[in-house]
Amino acid sequence: MPSPQEIQRALDIHGQAYLFIDWLRNARCGDVLRLDQGHRKESDLNFFDSAASWLEYNEDRIPSSLVPSAEDRKIFVSMLVSFRMTSGDYDLAYRERKMSQYWKSLVERVPAGNFCECEFCDRFVWRLGNFARNPEGGSGRAALLLKQSALRALLKESQLPLVEGDLPEILKRRGMFDNELSIWTYAWELVRRCDYEQHWYTHRQVESGVLLLWRRIARNRQGKISPEFLLTVERILAARDHVVEALQRTVKRRMA
Asked: Cβ-count burial of 124 within 10 angstroms (0-12 exposed, 13-18 middle, 19+ buried)?
């Protein structure tokens, strides 16, 4: 189970990555960044490697407050890569079917010769703000799989007399603690995203569920997502304790 320190670190770097993404939306146009192919290396075998090379290539062009420390660099890149999968559309066929006017106008504003189409540039840099994933479309099962994985890990840690076969029943009866389970699952998955290289296959299977979890826990009483909503370590740990207590009550009912 992630420690409070690990959760706080994940929240901090995740927040820094989002600030960087907001800055990048405007900085990618004009002459702020190096957008040519100079960052590409033979060792860039995947999206993660391409992102790391691009960040290193443009480090002196990025505001210092947005540049991750050497110690946090790998986690920061993991957050960027996972953002593309959890919050944005990565279907390349979309561009072949219909290139949006926004995308075409963006390309026209880029200085001649400064257009790189490596995996990171094509599927991240140029696609920010173009279109986003619909969290309601087919994400319910993915979110449920995430909750199941988080519950499985929680059962192992708490050493309660519950087994894998009990998970479906617990999830069906999760009504009163579903919001707390969503909060804990989101945080648990966020810590896992810190090591994207190790868990990349899992992300490909359940990525759409992450955004759905966030939207559910961030909604206020009016059903709207508050821009001021913020998860804290204290809130996350309280949610975990609430879920554990619910599991303990399940055990007591069975033993009664």
From this structure: buried
DSSP assignments along 101-151, one per residue? HHHHHHHHTSPTT----SHHIIIIITTTTT-B--TTSS-HHHHHHHHHHHH
pTM exceeds cut of 0.90: no
Task: Tell me how crowded residue 207 is: count the other CB atoms within 10 A of its CB.
Answer: 22
Extents of the domains making up the chain: 4-125, 140-255
Return d(Cα 77, Cα 50) in angstroms, integer. 10
Contact of 20 with 62, CB cutoff 8 Å: yes
pLDDT(206) > 70: no
pLDDT at 130: 55
Residue 132: strand pairing partners: 88
* Integer Cα distance of 99 and 97 in angstroms: 7
The residue count of the chain comes to: 256
**pLDDT band at residue 129 under the 50/70/90 scheme:** low
